[in-house]
Amino acid sequence: MLAKDYSKEIEEKWQKIWQENNVYAFDEADALKPKTENPKPIYSIDTPPPFTSGELHMGHVLSYSFFDFIARYKRMNGFNVFYPQGWDTQGFPTEVKVEKKYGKLAPTEFRQKCVEWTYKFIAKMKAQMIEMGFSPDWRYEYRTMDSNYHRKVQFSLIEMYKKGEIYRAAYPVHWCPNCVSAIAKAELEDLERETLLNYISFTGHNGEQLIIATTRPELIPACVAMMFNPTDERYKHLKGKIATTPFGDEVPIIADKDVEKEFGTGLMMVCTFGDKMDVVWTHRYKLQFKNVINQYGKMQNVGEFNNLKAEQARIKILEKLKTDGKLIKQEKKSQIVKIHDRCKTPVEFITSMQWFGDIKAKAGKIKEFAKQIEWIPSFGISYLTDWIDNVDWDWVISRQRIFGTPLPFYYCEKCDRTAIADELPFYAEKAKSKICLCGNEMKPETSTCDCWVDSSITPLIIAGWPNEKMLEKIYPLSLRPQGVEIVRTWAFYTIYRSGILTNKAPWKTILLNGNVLAPDGKKMSKSLGNIISPQQLQTKYPVDAIRQWAALSGAMAKDRPFSYEDLRYAKSFLIKLWNSTKLVEISTENYLEEEKKLRLVDKWIIGRMNETIRDFTAHMEAFEYHYAMNKLYQFYWHDFCDNYLEYVKHRIYTPQIYGEKSKKAAQYVMKYVLYNTIKLIAPITPHISEEIWQKFFKEKESIHRAHWPKIGIIDTNAIASAQIANEIVKILRQYKAVNKKAMNSILSFVKMRAPNIQDFEEDICGVIKIQKLEIEKSNNIELVCAEFAPEKSS
RNA sequence: GGGUUCGUAGUGGAGCGGUUAACACGUCUGCCUUACACGCAGAAUAUCAGAGGUUCGAAUCCUCUCGAGCCCACCA
What we know:
This protein has 794 residues and is α/β, with parallel strands linked by helices. 41% of the residues lie in helices and 18% in strands.
């Protein structure tokens, strides 16, 4: 007997059993079989390793549900599914929290604390994943902080170094003075703020007053040129001349098309480095470097202003300029500054020695790999190509952090030569000494990798690289599912790195999903207080309802607000499925498949079942879960429960009137529909499907090892005829509703004309409850009419 | 400024050349009909953003305008 209600206890029971029985195990032995032994086809998923923040958010729940639908669907379709799960562990947020708790520690100890901290967080997130019913094969779990993972990342970097892809060089990089580290362009965020635009007087070669406008007067000591637009009549006479800054430096005056005439006075200064355009201009005109800001964001090489923070120096310098009469005027101005996404500190440009990945030279190659991949939706590739076209310089892969993968290199401070580590994994603190070709002792690199260096080889890591045995079986992987917002990082770097290392695109298909917005349609954020926590939902709703919510939110690569309506609807579907199953249970007690006589409505619902199998399957193939589920709701809830089950009740309850064979047929059809329906929804709602399966069908140890339904007979004539019966029922129900009669009230007299009378007379009269029915056969299928006698007390 | 996605009932959203413009939530009406009232039945609600055009026919294709989201660039 089915329990009275569907409950979370049922879900937890199956989660346990699935774990214990390894229902989702990837069959490695089968995968390694030679082709001649017909191994099952492999379907491999390069699942995103979430950052170990300690808690899943709704975005995770949405996207990981998708991955799980795919894995379960493919398993039921005969694939040997390889679905590992990893963790992106290393990063600044963890360092911040660990430092807050333990204070400053030596690197080795600090890293150890970070590792311990991360293990706790992984445990929480993993429990949540299991509670969501996700079905990765946990035997292949990986963490980017593991020494084995380090070893592979380092090996990959050495391989790339040998190919000339990785190099160390001095370059202006985006620099966070708070983190004291270089950061990548992808880590920048915009901050809009109010600032002062200062008009400051420079001196021309003949004593002329030249006024420039700047928001960063503290950089005047780093001024290396003045500029104006070549079409600007006011300044044409200055071209090629020399000007003197308020600090007495002589700088050239250059005409350049990128100068905005309308901004300030149309005359400007170029510094090392106020912003990105300064960097561009410095390289364009081979200007000298004047580094006045150090790695901590403090002034240097500026005499009396040394060691002041940039903002303090700005105040002091403005005071000085004012006293000297060089500050002409100030006006308020709103400005957008680049800040570091993790600590929100305004970013500087600083010249320093960093390690780079050679992405600019490989832009064409990366695009080629990208084109070999099927992008779903297809416009997704444009996010990647647009990004590639806008890359200004190479990828800075080094970070001056501790909890990260150490870069496996040495460098020589004297001659700038570099060398690779000989033993992996490599850690600077334990590094062996190495003598440079110049005779100097080399320094082991203490910088760590950008976290995207770690995660950009996940397809290789899970495929067992560099071991060829598994690699050749599952690389390129079948699928990379990921968020649309990290195309320019994760997808881009993975295509670059995995592509360079294997000379193949890493996956056959990339599937992009959108984000979950708050119910108000805005981004979820702490400041707006509109965050929905999955954990809270899990206490109130069955997991199978939350998973349906994910399916319903599934328009690809599009953001959608979180919807409690969807969730409640999903929950009521579970209740519907449960209660209807109970009806099937009591209706089919002691049923043995015997001789049966299918009636019109039976053929109709069988036909609709098979239409649903056909459509549902097509939508699953196309990753269109919302369409799939909508088809199923329509079929199961409305066609099957609301109509079919009502139509056949009288056949079940009173076989003495309608015949045993008719009852048997109804019983058969009920089981048939239930059997196929729970299989279809098993990938979306695995728990309730399993419970029903185990109670009624149990052909295999789990429904998740069962075979996907095949499309059977779709009797289009039966479907068309039954539609007419449905119409008649609808008209009669309408009559009762309009005349405010109870649905179970008995109509005293009904007369109708319709085709196929014999076929549906018996099928429908049990539902509409008619005392006296007159049916007239008519060839006109369109014409269905009902006439009603005045009601008599019955 | 460039790219991209999109503007359809109160809300969320299908439909993408011919439909009475789906479905769900919400609203209104009736019904506790031997699985389910967390249900069933019925009803109302849409200048398909606006303006042109192509077509026998457009929510659907094209052009422009207006508006929104996301990504990118960006004023020193």
